[in-house]
């Protein structure tokens, strides 16, 4: 049995809006939107990977709040896990693999072309927000 690589993504909220990032690479994903994050490195906990990836990709410091229940298949051998995250400091900027960021209000979540694998994760985050679970607000 092959080990599965976990990819973590952050559902970062500010003033009730969700942060979305538009991919600039690789070419087959460019122009589509995702929850920012990346692979968990060997010896790293998912929460540590999330903080590191959001720092590298967006230049922000975050604090993981909770894992959103479920995991979603990516390509073979990879799964996506999502954590809500509190923005502690910094203003997000597209530093790596992204060319645009957007804060989406709850009624704007369908306004961007999400990557197929991110759609169910975004829907799960939206459900939890409606239920008042996983509040991840700044400071």
UniProtKB/TrEMBL annotation:
InterPro entries: MutT-like, Nudix_hydrolase, NUDIX_hydrolase-like_dom_sf, NUDIX_hydrolase_CS, NUDIX_hydrolase_dom. Keywords: DNA damage, DNA repair, DNA replication, Hydrolase, Magnesium, Metal-binding, Mutator protein. Its EC number is 3.6.1.55. It catalyses: 8-oxo-dGTP + H2O = 8-oxo-dGMP + diphosphate + H(+). Its cofactor is Mg(2+). Residues 1-129 form the Nudix hydrolase domain. GO terms for molecular function: hydrolase activity. Belongs to the Nudix hydrolase family. PANTHER family: 8-OXO-DGTP DIPHOSPHATASE, NUDIX HYDROLASE FAMILY PROTEIN. This is 8-oxo-dGTP diphosphatase. It comes from Streptomyces xantholiticus.
């Amino acid at each position: 049995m092959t080990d599965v690589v976990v990819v973590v993504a952050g559902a970062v909220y500010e003033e009730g809006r969700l942060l979305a990032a538009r991919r600039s690479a690789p070419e087959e994903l460019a122009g589509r939107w995702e929850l920012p994050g990346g692979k968990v490195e060997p010896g790293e906990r998912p929460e540590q990977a999330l903080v590191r990836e959001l720092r590298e990709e967006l230049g922000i410091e975050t604090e993981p709040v909770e894992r959103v229940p479920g995991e979603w298949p990516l390509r073979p051998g990879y799964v996506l896990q999502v954590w809500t995250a509190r923005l502690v400091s910094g203003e997000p900027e597209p530093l790596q693999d992204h060319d645009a960021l957007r804060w989406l209000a709850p009624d704007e979540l369908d306004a961007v072309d999400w990557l197929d694998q991110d759609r169910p994760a975004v829907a799960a985050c939206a459900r939890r927000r409606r239920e008042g679970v996983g509040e991840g607000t700044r400071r």
